[in-house]
């Protein structure tokens, strides 16, 4: 699939809207997941993902051929999410996950409710982290990216990535202990 992505990027850089549409289709879920991990609200993450692709479409001609498209796209999504979070400080965070029901098929209602409760609490605790810390934690723990990949994507030093992840994990650990939540 990497070969297809490179071809789509090349065509999109030349103005081919259909090729860019294939990139959107291919990366939509991953970009949504990154945005959702940072902002914590499905509706906001959908808006951010859409904004990310609009920004990428407008700037793709400036993308350097040797630059990895996905890393560039994630950087746009993270920056858009962080800017959104900074502008949304007055909004109350309410974790919503309509798709959660899909993950609990075949479980008892009690088990499913306990999982949803734990996930909602974790989402609430994540929401309390500064957006820059949430971003690196989401990229590491949800996207499974290596530290050096995160540093390259966000254009920050490797030490900053490690520091932010360590700080975020430490803060989450303390918050979980304080709330006595069992995850």
TrEMBL record:
Domain RNA polymerase sigma-70 region: 23-87
GO biological process: DNA-templated transcription initiation
UniProt superkingdom: Bacteria
Sorted UniProt keywords: DNA-binding, Sigma factor, Transcription, Transcription regulation
GO molecular function: DNA binding; sigma factor activity
InterPro entries: RNA_pol_sigma-70-like (IPR039425), RNA_pol_sigma-70_dom (IPR014284), RNA_pol_sigma70_r2 (IPR007627), RNA_pol_sigma70_r4_t2 (IPR013249), RNA_pol_sigma_r2 (IPR013325), RNA_pol_sigma_r3/r4-like (IPR013324), WH-like_DNA-bd_sf (IPR036388)
Domain RNA polymerase sigma factor 70 region 4 type positions: 122-172
Similarity field: Belongs to the sigma-70 factor family. ECF subfamily.
Name of protein: RNA polymerase, sigma-24 subunit, ECF subfamily
